[in-house]
Amino acid sequence: MTITQQHSKQRHQRRESLRRGAAAVALAAVLGGIAAPTALAEPASGAAASATAARGTLVSVTPLDTLDRDRVVAELGTLGIDPGTVRYGVSAYRLTYATVDPRGRPTTATGLLVLPRGGPHRLDLVSDTHGTIATRDDAPSGGAGYNRLTPYLHASAGRAVAAPDYLGLGSGPGGHPYMDTRSSVTASVDMLKAARTAAVRLGRQVTRDVYATGFSQGGQVAMALGRELSIGRDRLRLRALAPIAGPHDLLGTEFPGITDGRVDPRSAVFYLSYFLTAQNRLHPLYKDPAEVFRAPYAQAVEGLFDGSHPPQDIVAALPATPQELLTPQWAENVRTPSGALLEAVRVNDGVCDWKPSAPVRLYAGAADTDVPIANSRACAADLARHGVRAKVVDQGPDADHTTTAVRSAPQVVRWFDSIR
Questions:
Q1: Which residues, 6 or more positions from 242, have their beta carbon under 8 angstroms from its beta carbon?
Q2: If DSSP codes are grouped into helix, strand and coil, which group holds residue 252?
Q3: What is the per-residue pLDDT across 262-320, written as a single tens digit (0 to 9) for each?
Q4: Which CATH architecture has domain 251-347?
Q5: Which residues pair with 97 in a beta bridge?
Q6: Does the N-terminal peptide bond of residue 116 adopt cis geometry, omega within 30 degrees of 0?
């Protein structure tokens, strides 16, 4: 195999890893050049630190990567991301910080802080929230590299970037409450606060201006985070909001798309299995998995999403279609949600039903069969009802989920530059 062929194969693997399950199936190699971890703040145990610490309190900082400008360009090139906005090298760190779990109890979470090596004296802050992942180490501060690429992209343009792992991912304790919007927002807000503290400790000043973006699940989180920041949370100021391919319209688009074929069947199986098992821990949907999942999947499905299984193994262990996954009763419940399922979906829906004062752009792709573009159009319609005009940037008729992310991320950087 020639070097060119190796590079082409690596790029294809990176793109496939991002596509599967909204960036869920991480088949790509880990980014190289990771520095030996060295704590800059004395680490405490998660329980001990969070029991007494206020939300957003920094627990520890661990160096991960130091890349010069050329290396940033090279890493972005593995996924085909336009490097035209890259101005600086970057330094990346894992943060551990205090936050709360879905029931408001103290806990800790981790996330990735990326700082430009150079740039303005005082840095604006980007919140970059990632898409669906089921394996702890695929989180931004974990060992897998593809969820670091957009944080590197934004930091290399001259901003600080806070990329939360969310609860139960990365090195955070417990399981991940997948698609629990409220806890994803609290973890993201608290990550922003911890990132500002860590940046000062690392010799950089960070403003209170926040530019929020995110991909797939992270696009939905970004919209909800924007709503939280709009009320002046921790005196942070929302300057711009740019979700990419977010499932903003669960009841009107995403769930119907699962049953009418607009969502790829294998992706639908992955999302449904993850959502139902995670939400059952928060909003009891069933007592026995066999009520929801057909044999033999009922015996295995909950264990597949414990954070330790590689996503390709999860996909291999599940069927190809929702019809093969669900019992007849639950296939109908997904088609027309009611009862506890309807309540679980509703409490995590409606993220666009508010009036931002900051500008909003919604990025999507017409060929996306993970998160159909109708999600973004419905979001724009919700915002319009509040008197807010949000442009939907359609990345074209060939733009699937991955292509939408690859094309959109550099455009978001340039848009943030224009606002600045």
A1: 211, 212, 213, 222, 360, 361, 362, 363, 412, 415, 416
A2: helix
A3: 999 999 999 999 999 999 999 999 999 999 999 999 999 999 999 999 989 999 999 99
A4: Orthogonal Bundle (1.10)
A5: 58, 109
A6: no
User: What six digits make up the tokens of 92?
Assistant: 């990346």
Q: Tokens 């792709």: give the residue.
A: 365
225 alpha-carbon distance from chain centroid: 12
Of the candidate CATH numbers 3.40.50.1820, 3.40.630.30, 3.60.20.10, 3.30.450.20, the domain formed by 3-249+358-419 belongs to: 3.40.50.1820
For residue 291, count other CB atoms closer than 10 A to its CB.
Answer: 12
Q: Is 40 exposed, middle or buried (CB count within 10 Å of its CB: 0-12, 13-18, 19+)? A: middle
- State pTM to two decimals: 0.89
Find tokens 């209170």 and name the residue. Answer: 208
Beta bridge partners of 65: 34, 92
Quote the CA–CA distance of 219 and 293 in Å, as a whole number: 29
Strand partners, 129: 214
What strands, in cross-sheet order, belong to the sheet with 205-215? 58-67, 89-100, 106-117, 160-164, 122-129, 205-215, 237-244, 361-364, 391-394
Buried b or exposed e, range 41-64, using 16+ CB within 10 angstroms: eeebebeebbeebebbbbbbbbbb
pLDDT of residue 49: 53
Task: Please count the CA atoms within 13 angstroms of the CA of 283 that sit on its side-chain side.
Answer: 17
Backbone dihedral angles phi then psi of residue 185, each to the nearest 5 degrees? -70, -45
Q: How far is residue 179's CA from residue 359's CA, in Å, rounded to a whole number?
A: 25
- The distance in angstroms from the start CA to the end CA of the chain is 45
| Beta strand 361-364 pairing with 160-164 | unpaired
| CA dist 353 → 136, 249, 359, 387, 388 (Å) | 31, 10, 15, 11, 11
